[in-house]
Design a protein that fits this description.
The longest helix has 18 residues. This protein has 318 residues and is of the alpha/beta class. It has an 8-stranded mixed beta sheet, with helices on both faces. Helix content is 49%, strand content 12%. It is elongated, with a radius of gyration of 21 Å. Involved in targeting and insertion of nascent membrane proteins into the cytoplasmic membrane. Acts as a receptor for the complex formed by the signal recognition particle (SRP) and the ribosome-nascent chain (RNC). It is found in: Cell membrane; Cytoplasm. Its EC number is 3.6.5.4. Pfam families: SRP54, SRP54_N. It is a peripheral membrane protein.
């Protein structure tokens, strides 16, 4: 299959193109200024390109990898013109992203499991965690799946209320307890309820406090242990939600959470309102964790299954 074979429908692709417009416009404005008046990709151009990538929130380590790859091509091909830089960058970033196993999912499917498929959602407050859970519930329900939500963020009253609103809006079950309840207890009740109802998917919210690593680790470990009393393999996916508009701060959050628990997937939100879309490339590369979903708008259907082919294609679309 060709790397750039189109596999999104037209409407989804247009939403993705629009959602990445600010990131793309900012990136190519900077790139244009970097190569203005220059015809050959030389050391000066590569230095400027390095600045462009870092300022586009691709991250230092990933930027170095991309520059190294382009330097190898310059050494091999002897002469590369700046007019070719767009296509070279596209190829090298696509190659870098192909090294992370994203799976083949192009829609909201879930693996077959013995009992409900459990996704534990982690991330700090304000990144769009609750909204992501609500939109995921909507997408799974659209697929004919029975969904149960667990309001495990018991430290913030608004978190439970917001999740309750989403549950009613989407029309799915929610399990909740009083404010200040033990999150592990909520997780236990949620899984018991999901099993009893023969549910397909469980989406469990967790507290969004980025307290010290030891406390975070202990809390998430306890939730996992309690869930495994009901379903031995739960959670099947630990999804970290990151706000794409925070740029480098998203890297720091990813570092904290991956140190505290085994994160198996990422959801990057709010990409439509930012010029920092390059963060998706950097985080994916640095942490070698697949980006599962991206938020490219406020609508119910604007949470998309991330596809590296279409992302790179939209980012470099002229």
């Amino acid at each position: 299959m060709s790397f750039f074979k189109k596999i999104f429908n037209k409407e989804k692709k247009e939403t993705l193109d629009k959602g990445l417009e600010k990131s793309k416009s900012s990136f190519f404005d900077k790139l244009g200024k970097a190569v203005a008046g220059k015809s050959k990709v030389d050391e000066d151009v590569l230095d400027d390109l390095e600045d462009v990538l870092i300022s586009s929130d691709v991250g230092v380590a990933t930027t170095v990898k991309i520059i190294d790859r382009i330097e190898e091509r310059v050494a091999r091909d002897k002469y590369l013109g700046t007019s070719e830089l767009n296509s070279i960058l596209r190829e090298e970033i696509a190659g870098l992203m192909s090294e992370v196993n994203y799976g083949d999912a192009t829609d909201f499917t879930i693996p077959s499991t013995d009992g409900p498929y459990v996704i534990m959602i982690v991330g700090v407050n304000g990144v769009g965690k609750t909204t992501t859970i609500g939109k995921l519930a909507h997408q799974f329900k659209q697929k004919g799946k029975k969904v149960v939500l667990g309001a495990g963020d018991t430290f913030r009253a608004a978190a439970v209320d917001q999740l309750d609103i989403w549950a009613n809006r989407v029309g799915v079950e929610i399990v909740k307890q009083a404010m200040g309840s033990d999150p592990a207890s909520v997780a236990f009740d949620t899984l018991q309820s999901a099993v009893a109802q023969n549910a397909d998917v469980v989406l469990l919210d967790t507290a969004g406090r980025l307290h010290n690593k030891v406390n975070l680790m202990n809390e998430l470990s306890k939730i996992k242990r309690v869930m495994q009393k009901v379903l031995p393999n739960a959670p099947h996916d630990v999804m970290l939600v990151l706000d794409g508009s925070t740029g480098q701060n998203a890297f720091e959050q990813a570092k904290q959470f991956t140190a505290a628990t085994e994160v198996t997937s990422l959801a990057v939100t709010k990409l439509d309102g930012t010029a920092k879309g390059g963060v998706v490339i950097g985080i994916s590369d640095q942490f070698q964790i697949p980006v599962r979903y991206i938020g490219v708008g406020e609508g119910m259907d604007d949470l998309q299954v991330f596809n590296k082919v279409e992302f790179v294609d939209s980012f470099f679309k002229q």
